[in-house]
Design goal:
Blueprint (H helix, E strand, L loop, with lengths): L8 E3 L5 E3 L3 H18 L1 E9 L5 E6 L3 H14 L3 E3 L16 E7 L6 E10 L7 H20 L7 H43 L3 H15 L2 E9 L5 E8 L3 H5 L2 E3 L3 H9 L3 E3 L11 H6 L6 E8 L2 E11 L7 H53 L3 H15 L2 E10 L5 E8 L2 E8 L5 H8 L3 E4 L2 H6 L2 H6 L3 E7 L8 E8 L7 H47 L11 E7 L7 E8 L3 E9 L4 H20 L4 H15 L6 E9 L4 E7 L4 E4 L5 E4 L17 E4 L5 E5 L16 H10 L5 H15 L9 E7 L6 E8 L4 H13 L8 H20 L9 E9 L2 E8 L14 H5 L7 H9 L2 E7 L2 E9 L2
Antiparallel strand pairs: 1-2, 3-4, 3-7, 5-6, 6-7, 8-9, 8-13, 9-10, 11-12, 12-13, 14-15, 14-19, 15-16, 17-18, 18-19, 20-29, 21-22, 22-23, 23-24, 24-27, 25-26, 25-28, 28-29, 30-31, 31-32, 32-34, 33-34
Helix pairs in contact: 1-4, 3-4, 4-5, 4-9, 5-9, 9-10, 9-14, 10-14, 14-15, 15-16, 19-20, 20-22
Length: 914
């Protein structure tokens, strides 16, 4: 800061004090305001500082200047800081305040040092400032007054001004520390008291009640509660409740998954609900039963190990508006304390049980390890079953075990692997020879029992063969598998019934055994199918490479296209291509067959048509004639392609077309009348010399052109009725005012609903061209690909667009986005290349309320998929990371797409401007 600056505070001629004003000091005041706002998350803030004339001058911004001025004047005259809540009145006759206000006096309460008022307007996320906010800003203001006061005696001391900013930053840190210390000191005292209580008492109920009372006090709430899960983990039961409604609430239970507590129990994550009356997730039964109004809730899970055992809640803040994120960390300490107390009480009770279960788990783990070895070393189903069933009988101390597999379909057989007397037998049964085991498999319900004379009389052949003494039958069906099977085990050697622990072990072992069996069984099928799947994968890749990877952008028309395959691969394809800024071609096609040879034929046909259309000036009819000759030469096994080809000249608004055995396409006029565009000629590849007759139409502003394949009209409903061409036209006309892509997406959904959402009958491909009713404005300018040219490009855009954009922020969004795109071209596109005289073209097209900007360069091919996701936090800190420019462009513009063609990169950006 310059040595010529006056002190912040000076003596007036009358002997009083006033606050200085200069550009440098105004910047300082704005900096202080920004930090004060940050301290309490205020929206706006201003200083009202006493000037040399004795009046209050405002520095900073507030929305309601009239209300803020009255508040500041009152605080200055009364020398008392205070806050006003949103909706309150300054005077009886004044309107309610639209925001909450916090105003602090700057100066000595006793004495003549009156400097002004620090006023904050509106708080983010909440309705009102709290008393804590007022205390913090009062502390900040009083220390700020002391700093300002020191400047009265600093005239001529240059070093004071050079350190003033540093002193203010230290003040900010000190204010935060002051606020945190007050809260942390009380919190630590309570945590220490709670910890001592837990370690010194064995009375769980007393401990929990004391902890919840402490939580209620620390977080200053009307009530607090602790809920524990019941044994079945279906409900949360109120175990400890503080507050006036303790008796009513203690009788309730909350279903897991419902309400805030039920949700926390499921997610294991703490939650804050600051608008409980309008939040549908709040469990209303508690308020109804207790006649209590829940305003806000802070909830945290009680976690023992990795398991949720309950939830604690703090209800309704008393002296502040809402719970904050800072409360969560403190509240989790209380939840941990409660969990520790509960664990401590139950630890001794569970210790003996845990030892017994540990021994059982070790035994089970050994069996699973042996089973894993059996899976790895077995080469067929019988070998796997021989080793696995031996492991199972040993683990469960039983005589016999087996696996029953249901084969439905053509066979309708039951396959059985039965281990009896130490040997494993494979046998087959008819479905009629089993009832109970088959019902267990189909209903996915295990059953246990003891074989009595009455039960044995109900057995069929299978049950009589495999079940004896006491038994368990457990259905097994691995996730994502079609296997229908059951494991059984019988003859427990201690002559006792199989219990829950036995069933649990059986379930543990059954899953890897069933999966291993299925893997062996499916191994041969996988080998057989592998070649088919590889062919489908190659076919799909070929087809994906054929289709354009981005939508063509132009103000001369609005293009939309959608192609959906009915099966794994499609027989449809489409294409479009611009020739400069005025000539365009479009086509849709349908290839016979969907195999790998058909995909190769599709790629070959597409390549021939693209080459002819992009390298010659043939009419559509001539182009199809030449394409047919070349395609016929390479056509095999009678393959052919139907195709409709369109060329469009935007300068004359003429469309020429030709058809190779394809459907009649649709021309919809502005007045909603329509005409079918017909062409003559055989599908490409059928005969060596085809003759094709097309046509020509004049497109007028407001017209539409619809290109489609038969999958768009031949879809059938449950009554075998086709969707039909007439209905397709009606649905498109009804949506004529919508963007082309939106029309197609809605048409596709209508067709799916028409079919009853059954399997798609045929490939769906529709392309729509809408021609605008206004003539576009076009501009092109070339710039050298160097950094110094980017400001020139911005100036060019600014002058060109200054009076043409009325939508708020659109002008800035466009300049930022184009700046980022051009910077990427200069800094990355031409990096490490030897291209002489690098450049980029800036092409601008404006039509109505839209603008399309295209940047064209000859740099390295831009690969959008290789751009890393940006780190927003790092970029906000000034650490420039990769991907942020692309991210920014795609966020600011309505549409952004990229294309590499004819050795050039095309970056398309579209934005609504009015």
């Amino acid at each position: 800061m310059s040595s010529s600056l006056p002190p912040v505070v000076q003596r007036s001629k009358e002997g009083g004090f006033f606050v200085s004003s200069s550009h440098e000091l105004t910047d300082l005041y704005h900096f202080i305001l920004s930090q004060a706002k940050r301290l309490v998350s205020a929206k706006h803030g201003s200083f009202y500082l006493k000037n040399e004339r004795g009046n209050l001058s405002r520095v900073g911004l507030v929305k309601d200047t009239q209300a803020a001025g009255k508040i500041a004047k009152h605080v200055f005259l009364s020398k008392k800081s205070f806050l006003l809540k949103k909706g309150s009145h300054i005077t009886k006759d004044s309107p309610p305040l639209a925001e909450s206000y916090l105003a602090c006096y700057l100066g000595d309460e006793i004495g003549d040092l009156s400097l002004g008022v620090l006023l904050l307007e509106g708080i983010r996320h909440f309705d009102h400032f709290s008393e804590q906010d007022l205390d913090l800003i009062n502390y900040f203001s009083s220390n700020l007054t002391a700093l300002f006061k020191d400047t009265v005696y600093s005239e001529g001391e240059n070093r004071f001004f050079s350190t003033l900013n540093t002193a203010i930053l230290l003040l900010l840190d000190n204010s935060n520390i002051h606020n945190n210390n007050n809260r942390l000191e009380y919190f630590l005292e309570e945590i220490i008291r709670v910890s001592v209580l837990i370690n010194s008492s064995l009375d769980l109920n007393k401990v929990l009640e004391m902890v919840m009372e402490s939580a209620k006090s620390v977080f200053r709430t009307e009530a607090s509660s602790l809920l524990l899960l019941d044994e079945k983990k279906e409900f949360l039961l109120f175990n400890t409740v503080t507050g006036e409604k303790k008796e009513e609430i203690s009788k309730l239970k909350v279903p897991v998954g419902q309400g805030i507590a039920g949700t926390v129990a499921i997610t294991k994550q703490p939650m804050i609900i600051n608008d409980a009356q309008n939040d549908p997730r709040v469990f209303r039964d508690v308020d109804k039963a207790s006649n209590f109004i829940t305003r806000n809730i802070l909830a945290a899970p009680l976690i023992a190990g990795d398991e949720v055992i309950g939830v604690i809640e703090a209800i309704n803040t008393i002296d502040r508006n809402n719970f904050s994120q800072n409360d969560i960390d403190f509240f989790l300490s209380f939840s941990s304390a409660c969990a520790v107390a509960i664990q401590k009480t139950s630890l001794l009770e569970n210790l003996n049980t845990a030892n017994i279960e540990l021994k059982q788990k070790l035994s089970t783990l050994e069996s699973i390890f042996e089973l894993g070895q059996a899976v790895l070393e077995s080469h067929d189903e019988l070998g796997l079953m021989s080793r696995s069933l031996a492991i199972l009988t040993k683990e469960l101390n039983a005589d016999d075990a087996g696996m029953v597999i249901l084969h439905e379909g053509k066979q309708n057989l039951i396959q059985v692997y039965a281990r009896q007397n130490g040997m494993v037998f494979e046998s087959f049964y008819d479905l009629s020879e089993s009832t109970q085991i088959i019902n267990s498999i189909l209903n996915r319900e295990f059953f246990t029992g003891t074989v009595s004379k009455e039960l044995e009389e109900s057995f069929n052949g299978l049950e009589s063969f495999v079940l004896k003494d006491n038994f368990v039958v457990l259905p097994v069906s691995p996730s994502g598998s079609s296997l229908k099977a059951a494991l059984y085990i019988c003859g427990k050697r201690k002559k006792e019934l199989f219990g829950e622990a036995d069933v649990r072990i059986l379930k543990t072992i059954s899953s890897p055994l069933a999966k291993a069996y299925e893997n062996l069984r499916l191994n041969q099928e996988i080998i057989t199918k592998k070649s088919i799947e590889k062919e489908i994968e190659i076919t799909r890749k070929i087809q994906n490479n054929i289709l354009p990877n981005s939508i063509l952008q132009s103000v001369n028309f609005d293009l939309g296209v959608k192609s959906v395959a009915a099966k794994e691969v499609s027989g449809d394809f489409f294409d479009f291509h611009p020739y400069g800024s005025e000539q365009f071609s479009f086509l849709v096609a349908d290839v016979s067959g969907k195999s790998l040879p058909a995909a190769i034929f599709m790629a070959m046909s597409s390549s021939i048509i693209r080459t002819l259309s992009r390298t010659s000036s043939l009419s559509p009819s001539e182009l199809l004639t030449e394409a047919n000759k070349l395609i016929y030469e390479d056509s095999q096994s009678g393959m052919f392609v139907t195709l409709f080809f369109v060329s469009f000249d935007s300068s004359t608004h003429k469309i020429r077309f030709a058809s190779a055995g394809h459907n009649d396409q649709i021309w919809i006029r502005k007045d909603h009348s329509y005409e079918l565009l017909k062409g003559k000629g055989a599908p490409l590849g059928v005969m060596p010399a085809g003759h094709y007759i097309g046509g020509e139409i004049d497109i007028l502003p407001g017209d539409m052109l619809v290109l489609y394949t038969d999958g768009a009209i031949e879809e059938k409903n449950q009554f075998e009725e086709e969707f039909g061409l007439d209905q397709l036209i009606r649905e498109i006309i009804a949506r004529k005012e919508k963007p082309s892509q939106v029309i197609i997406e809605e048409i596709y959904q209508i067709i799916r609903q028409f079919s009853g959402n059954s399997e798609q009958y045929d490939d769906f491909t529709v392309m729509i061209l809408k021609f605008p009713e206004q003539k576009p404005e076009s501009f092109v300018k070339r710039f050298n690909a160097v950094s110094s040219e980017i400001p020139k490009m911005r100036e060019y855009l600014s002058e060109l667009l200054q009076d043409k954009i009325s939508l708020p922020f659109a002008f800035d969004d466009i300049l930022v986005s184009v700046d980022e795109a051009a910077t990427n071209i200069v800094m990355h596109g031409y990096k490490n290349t030897n291209i002489p005289n690098p450049y980029f073209d800036c092409m601008i097209e404006m039509l109505g309320d839209r603008i399309i900007i295209t940047l064209v360069d000859e740099g390295k091919p831009f690969q959008r998929d290789n751009v890393p996701s940006p780190s927003i936090d790092a970029n906000l800190k000034g650490e420039r990371k990769g991907g942020f420019g692309v991210f920014l462009m795609e966020k600011l513009m309505d549409k952004v797409s990229y294309e590499f063609k004819e050795s050039k990169n095309y970056t398309y950006m579209e934005k609504k401007i009015s």
